[in-house]
Amino acid sequence: MDEMQLLRILEDNPKASVADLADILNESEEEVIRVKSRLEEENIICGYHTVVNWDKTNSDHVTAIIEVDAKPEKDVGYDRIAAMISRFDEVTDLYLMSGSSSFSVVIQGRTMREISDFVAQSLAPIEGVTNTSTSFMLRQYKVGGVNLMKDDKKDKRQIVQP
Q1: What is the band of 67 on the pLDDT scale with cuts at 50, 70, 90?
Q2: What does the DSSP 8-state code read for residue 55?
Q3: 108: which residues sit within 8 A by CB, 6+ positions away?
Q4: What pLDDT is recorded for position 152?
Q5: What 8-state DSSP symbol labels residue 73?
Q6: Which residues pair with 136 in a beta bridge?
Q7: Residue 123, C-beta contacts closer than 8 angstroms, at least 6 positions apart
Q8: Would you say residue 51 has pLDDT above 90?
């Protein structure tokens, strides 16, 4: 079985049924289940996610990207700091970066104040963290490859006549 093709299909459509996967890959359903289970056990497939357009819901939802500067430690580099940051439920994504900051941290909360308090009380005090810079996401246009502007295709400009 072409595992890379299976991974690409699941990345584009995590809800694809085993029967559909078997048809696409020209494999038996049992083989698809076996390979998919192994990929999950080996932590190659790490989860199945739903993209939510929070702007269309009636709930308070704020996402922020926080650039975090940190001092690497002898023998472990940034790993201890990354482990400390990743343990927080508010953190949805954590990346070691090249460039001007050490980490890029994506967090979610209900309000900007909640996120600000998290940064001040939980993130900034971590030993080794030297600076943080928070940017709030104002609107989502495309998330995880999904265009959230599907309803915005109509030209909403007014017609101007001379």
Answers
A1: very high
A2: G
A3: 61, 62, 63, 64, 90, 92
A4: 54
A5: B
A6: 64
A7: 66, 68, 85, 88, 105, 129, 132
A8: no
